[in-house]
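Predict fold of Chorismate synthase; 366 aa.
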Amino acid sequence: MMNSFGHIFRVTTWGESHGPALGATVDGVPPGVCLEAEMLQHWLDRRKPGQNRFTTQRREADEVRILSGVYEGETTGTPVQLMIENTDQRSKDYGDIAEKFRPGHADISYWLKYGIRDPRGGGRSSARETAARVAAGGVAREALKALAPGIEIRGYMTRMGAHEIDRARFDWDEIERNPFWTPDAKAAETWADYLGALRKAGSSVGAVIEVVVRGAPAGLGAPIYAKLDTDLAAAMMSINAVKGVEIGEGMRAAELTGENNADEITMGPDGPEFSSNHAGGILGGISTGQDIVVRFAVKPTSSILTPRKTITKAGEPAEIVTKGRHDPCVGIRAVPVGEAMAACVVLDHLLLHRAQVGEGPRGRIG
Ligand SMILES: Cc1cc2nc3c(=O)[nH]c(=O)nc-3n(C[C@H](O)[C@H](O)[C@H](O)COP(=O)(O)O)c2cc1C
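Predicted 3D structure, encoded as tokens:
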């Protein structure tokens, strides 16, 4: 249970940073979905390390293989087993951390809980595990393409450290043109200088990522323990380094009055229309047909070159510098991970809705 998520479309990931391989077992995949490894590779390549100078220079090919659940290019309805081999394991980069706990990492909590840990690259706590999620998200995307072709899922960075995007400059096409997956070209320029300097100094910074699901039908999500927002928040919060999750207005809703926050409803030619989207497309845990908007904050990378105080396993005071190859801003590579988690949750809820209610929303207006 602790390595799985999803109700019907159920993903279990396995493996560690420095084991021979890691992957995902994806159960509940509808039969007859076209699926080939190249389709998943497309998404994995976006998360892959070493894509530009702003991500870690580890060299992982991140090549995914489909071991089961597909026959002649189509899913069979049986579990889809995905495997990604680890090819760039340099255990010597991590020798120091076997005895010392790195501040900001899971070393101390894993040790206190289990009394044993794999220190190589952070073991199971390493964000290398997110490659498996991205592969599973690729499966979800292909299933969504077949079942609900209007759905589009896109993620982008809206903040790096103190620098936020200007929404007046928001351009969907820009997201693919810069190394930060941001819709604001000017912000990308500022961030390049800012992150370039931080990287040279061996420092790091946090970020905010927004994921939008467009074209999702009304009716996804259920009261009370299977709310769409509950599952989306849990999915995003489960990503390494995530410290905050918001739906729609999120924390800023606390600053608004009821008049400003409630999205007014009018009848349009094709059904209900909303004057705004403070709710982030979800009311009572159920999608309204508006864009579903989820946002998450990642903390600054904990592995930095400035010596930090810590202790050894024996309880002695120590200092640690986390050498090795690290992302100066994990937000960049977290974008495809957030998209993948959203794809898995949305497909899961589409299947749940079909199981309980049937095809499409049941209620009619007008
Ligand atoms: C895509 C991605 C890449 C990451 N890369 C690094 C990294 O290179 N160095 C690092 O110290 N942390 C990195 N992290 C964050 C750590 O995995 C994470 O902070 C650590 O496991 C402790 O877990 P927690 O921050 O969720 O509490 C990355 C996170 C993500 C999502």
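Helices lie at 37-47, 107-114, 130-147, 185-200, 228-237, 258-261, 331-356.
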